[in-house]
Amino acid sequence: MENEHEYDVVVLGAGPVGENVVDRVRAAGLTAAIVEAELLGGECSYWACMPSKALLRPVLARSDARKVPGLREAVYGPLDALDVFAHRDETVGHWKDDGQVDWLDSIGVRVYRGHGSLAGPRRVTVDGPEGEHHVLTARHAVAVCTGSRAVLPPLPGLSGARPWTSREATSADRVPGRLVVVGGGVVGVEMATAWHALGSHVTLLVRGDGLLPRMEPFVGERVAEALRARGADVLTGVSVEAVVRDGGSGPVTVVLEGGDTVEGDEVLFATGRAPRTESVGLETVGLEPGSWLDVDDSLRVTGTDWLYAVGDVNHRALLTHQGKYQARIAGAAIAARAAGGASDAAPWGPLAASADHGAVPQVVFCDPEAAAVGLSLAEAERAGHRVRAVDVEMSSVAGAGLYAQGYRGRARLVVDLDREVLLGATFVGPAVGELLHAATVAVTAEVPVARLWHAVPSYPTLSEVWLRLLEAYRDGADPA
Ligand SMILES: Cc1cc2nc3c(=O)[nH]c(=O)nc-3n(C[C@H](O)[C@H](O)[C@H](O)COP(=O)(O)OP(=O)(O)OC[C@H]3O[C@@H](n4cnc5c(N)ncnc54)[C@H](O)[C@@H]3O)c2cc1C
Ligand SMILES: NC(=O)c1ccc[n+]([C@@H]2O[C@H](COP(=O)([O-])OP(=O)(O)OC[C@H]3O[C@@H](n4cnc5c(N)ncnc54)[C@H](O)[C@@H]3O)[C@@H](O)[C@H]2O)c1
């Protein structure tokens, strides 16, 4: 059965980003349809942010509690993995999207279930699960918000070895005795942290010389040190050459360059992401299937006046909050252009995702937590800024000792010496995730260091680390 329908805006992919695009264009009075092949809510809700953080929350809470005298004795038992899984399952709505359906219905967005693809300019076809076929025409814009998927490297034996990707690592309901994790990026580190605490013996295999290589080097050092202290094996500078699981069952052997092997019951490949653009009809509009989509600051695909690419798929920042920020901007830009005005995307205006360029915040929910915004020292120097970094040990503030006995953490500001504003800030230590937004405001708003002295942190909180950082900057202390 073929059905033709027309909307102002058609969105491909109902992850957090696609949902926010339709929300914004509907709020501006446009009609909108959204196409989803799996679950409304996307990777983030079911196989990424939400389940991973539900697995990690008891891990981090227990770790903090164990550092509080008088409380630690109460939390010395193992985690109850079945309870953790049950809470994770509840957090992801048992992999059902009824709530999202109701919400989209309530804002008047038509949902099409099925695989969507472009069929030339402003046209989208949808092939539904029951063989239904729809042709959707967009009067103003199509937004591709199809996200990303895990990449598996082309290694001998890997496909037959039933490797975990982020999907299995966030949805498994059995604790493997031994888990080998390949990749020292964010997924590798968070999942190594979670599964180690749930009871697996974890071996983390890292190709480079440290963990979390996109953050300041001291972050990866502290996180690796803590993982090792808790009993995980962290091997750096190792390269995986092959994976063997005889007959697809039993233990899995990971073969390293040089011939050493590591055995596990499961192996997780956390080796990065690829855009989900291989079968969305890009070739029908002169674009390369399978590519990340280049966009301008209003999220419009380069060389088009009707196609937008928002969220992971444009590769600007693979984070839910940053994708949703882009969605708010793309929605506003689509609405403004539909109304015939404001094609202007001036930096830091309502139609430009300017923060994508140097003010992206990220919290990694490992133990200790890691949080950073803006540029690292190396990135700032590479970009040609005249900068100085100031570092302090977080144990120097009273709030740290109260938060956790023996609190161990470090903070860094990267200061632009020509303008005396912050280009970046990084924190590693228990509970630093909640420190990050102050830094994001300082970096985004380019608050002068002289004015930051007047932003007084409450006593005795971890935020007093801001004072120590400003003092270190004033006193000319160099990073240790
Ligand atoms: C393990 C893990 C943990 C993470 N944790 C965090 C975190 O704590 N914080 C954070 O900010 N970010 C986190 N991320 C990143 C975050 O998940 C992504 O940045 C976010 O999901 C991107 O949203 P999106 O809407 O662009 O894409 P997605 O969430 O991938 O959604 C895309 C949607 O499009 C649909 N789709 C794809 N192709 C088609 C098609 N042809 N037709 C119809 N539908 C289609 C998909 O089914 C999917 O529902 C994590 C990622 C992983 C892997
Ligand atoms: N808390 C959060 O904000 C959070 C949590 C999880 C994921 N994410 C997002 O999801 C995205 C994907 O995360 P990810 O960890 O998969 O990707 P990533 O790019 O952060 O890390 C992948 C790592 O795998 C390594 N690698 C690649 N190929 C390899 C190989 N063949 N052998 C060994 N190592 C190899 C890379 O060097 C890299 O360090 C990230 O960009 C991140 O922003 C965010």
From TrEMBL:
UniProt xrefs under Gene3D superfamilies: 3.30.390.30, FAD/NAD(P)-binding domain
Domain of life, source organism: Bacteria
Name of the protein this chain belongs to: Oxidoreductase
Keywords: FAD, Flavoprotein, NAD
Domain FAD/NAD(P)-binding, first and last residues per copy: 7-321
InterPro entries the UniProt entry points to: Class-I_Pyr_Nuc-Dis_Oxidored, FAD/NAD-bd_sf, FAD/NAD-binding_dom, FAD/NAD-linked_Rdtase_dimer_sf, Pyr_nuc-diS_OxRdtase, Pyr_nucl-diS_OxRdtase_dimer
Species whose genome carries this gene: Streptomyces hydrogenans
Domain Pyridine nucleotide-disulphide oxidoreductase dimerisation: 360-466
Keyword Lyase belongs to the record: no
Leader sequence residues: none
Pfam families with a match to the protein in the record: Pyr_redox_2, Pyr_redox_dim
